[in-house]
Design a protein that fits this description.
Length: 120
């Protein structure tokens, strides 16, 4: 898993929503909206394209379930695979490590205070 680039933010956010359990696409979209994803709204087209990519990668699976309406089409419910669980865990650890390295920048004096303009 270390030979691949880091997960994109949106892919990571989708995987994180599935950690608690399986969800259908609309529930994923609602949860992302409620969590506040940095002001970005994930539209249905983008969401379902990303879900398809995550299925192709083998990180999630899609299972058709009854819609609850006798005339409605089945809904797809998405769930993490074992590989997906490993990916989201590895990415969370990578991001936590990055935050720890950046923490001194947030709590210490501003680095820009140490620079003086070059003489002319």
């Amino acid at each position: 898993m270390t030979d691949r680039p880091p997960l994109g933010a949106r892919e990571f956010e989708i995987l994180v929503t599935l950690v608690a359990g399986p969800k259908h696409g609309y529930a994923i979209m609602q949860e992302l909206r409620e969590q506040g994803t940095g002001g970005r709204v994930l539209g249905p087209g983008t969401l379902y394209r990303l879900l398809k990519e995550l299925v192709t990668q083998g990180w999630i699976t899609a299972v058709a379930t009854p819609s609850g309406k006798s005339e409605g089409p089945p809904r797809r419910v998405y769930r993490l695979t074992a590989l997906g669980e490993r990916m989201v865990t590895a990415e969370a650890r990578r991001l936590a490590s990055l935050v720890e390295r950046a923490r001194p920048l947030l709590s210490g004096p501003s680095r820009t205070q140490h620079f003086e303009p070059a003489p002319r």
